[in-house]
Each structure stands twice: as structure tokens, then as C-alpha cells.
Write a structure and sequence with these properties.
The protein contains 6 helices and 5 strands. Helix 1 packs parallel to helix 6.
Length: 166
Amino acid sequence: MGIFRDDIEKLAIGVLEKCRAKGWKLATAESCTGGLIGGSLTDIAGSSDVFDGGFITYSNVAKNRTIGVNKDVLRKFGAVSEEVAREMATGALAAASVDIVVAVTGIAGPGGGSPGKPVGRVHLAVATKSGIVEHRKMDYGDPGRSQVRIETVKTALEMLSAALDG
């Protein structure tokens, strides 16, 4: 048993197996999860044949400098937005030269929320080498910082799994 819940471990195993079956490499671009998605994948023995690496881009400066998120997009829409999640995914895809990427940006709490962007709001995006970018906006509420982060990991793995089925 790994350090993650059983449901997350099963999802991670499934994502790795689907990548292997396609001969694909995977990377992550993470903000509010701080590397937990990559951690869930690397908690599985043998993941190094599929998981290339991850970008932890917590600040706006890191999002721009590391994976090329446009400063104007960050200014106009804010870090927690569909537009930034999509740019994180496509930017990480190009930077890592992999086949599929999941990106997440959100407000885990306990503070930092606003009426327009409440605590628990997370934007996720998956990009593939064929150019498909899927986005999902989640509102987890305010069950606590750790719970928002771990539920984001689960959603990210679910999105990867669905994209790999396509």
C-alpha cells in the first residue's frame, strides 16, 4: 500500500498502464497540488518508464518563466482560471516534450477566496500531443486545504484516464 488512498492508487495505476499501452510519456503542471499528482504516480513502482516529470509552478512568475503562461493572460484572467489551466497544460506539454499533460490551478484555502473565485475552486486541463485540450472547473467547497488538494489529485487522474481512453 502506498501513501495515497486506495481509489487514487488505483487511478494512478490505471493511468500508467494506459500510457504504457499507447507508448506515451506523461508530465504534470501543478500549482495548488504542489506536486501531489506527480507524487501519486511515482508512488507506483515502475512509473519511471511513463512519468517524465512535473512542473510545480506555484507563483505567476513560475507559471510564466517555467512553462510559458502568457503574462497578459495571467493579468486578465488571474491564475485560477480556465485560460491559465489550458496554457499551463499546453506549455508543459511543449516544455517536457511528452505525449500528455495534466495541469491544475486553484484555491485550496483556507484563505485566498473571493466571491468570484471561492475557496475550493480548481481549474484542471489535459493536453495531448494531438492538440486536444480538455478543461474542467471544480468547486470542492471548503472541506479543508488537504481535502481540496487530494480531491484535485483524484479529478486530475480521472481526466488523464478519460483522455487516454480517447
